[in-house]
Design a protein that fits this description.
With about 200 residues, this protein is mainly beta. It contains 1 helix and 14 strands.
Length: about 200
């Protein structure tokens, strides 16, 4: 074999490998976001087996992106099982940034409302079972009071102070693990971002 033939084959091989690497763009994260100027107040994402929703609820329990300084608000993340079988969800998606709030102007980390995971539920199974056509929900208020507490498995040892007037955002970098009929599935590379205003 001639040296030119070897160079040509190597060049074709390198170009083939590079083109295969370029197809990886499908794995880039999807960013879904809403802001106070849009008509949307709920981020929705659908897969073959699960429908996801992320929103912030006002004091009346309605999705919103603009809140009064004196009013409480509640983060809400839900996942509806649209398959015909029960799913079992593990809680990798509740990471340290789950429901975390940032100041939009300079990305200052304000913190998250919940203070722990499982807490008094530590003796219970650390998974969430969702029957077919049922919804798993995790809600957590910014300010803790007797009528507004976080959902299992989140817990709050202390309340947060009201946010100052300003523009904020929360982001959920989804890493959702679940099993169905013993087969594990992972939904990731999706980011939900809600910009909201306190006035």
């Amino acid at each position: 074999m001639k040296i030119n033939d070897v160079k040509t084959i190597l060049s074709i091989l390198v170009l083939t490998l590079l083109s295969v690497g370029c197809d990886k763009n499908n794995d880039l994260p999807i960013l879904l976001e809403i802001n106070p100027d849009s008509d949307e107040t709920v981020i929705k994402y659908f897969t073959k087996q699960i429908e996801f929703e992320l929103c912030i609820l006002n004091k009346d329990g309605q999705p919103a992106t603009v809140f009064n300084k004196v009013d409480n608000f509640t983060f809400s993340f839900s996942f509806k099982n649209i398959s015909s079988d029960q799913i079992i969800v593990t809680t990798e998606f509740i990471n340290s940034d789950f429901f975390n709030v940032y100041l939009a102007q300079n990305k200052t980390n304000i913190g998250k409302p919940w203070t722990g995971l499982w807490c008094e539920f530590s003796g219970l199974p650390q998974e969430i079972k969702v029957n077919s056509q049922s919804i798993g929900k995790i809600r957590c208020p910014w300010i803790l009071d007797k009528n507004n507490t976080p959902d299992y498995p989140l817990c709050m040892a202390q309340s947060k102070a009201s946010l100052n007037i300003g523009d904020y955002y929360t982001i959920l970098d989804l890493d959702f693990h679940y099993s169905i009929n013993g087969k594990t599935n992972i939904i990731n590379n999706i980011k939900f971002k809600i910009f909201f205003k306190v006035k």
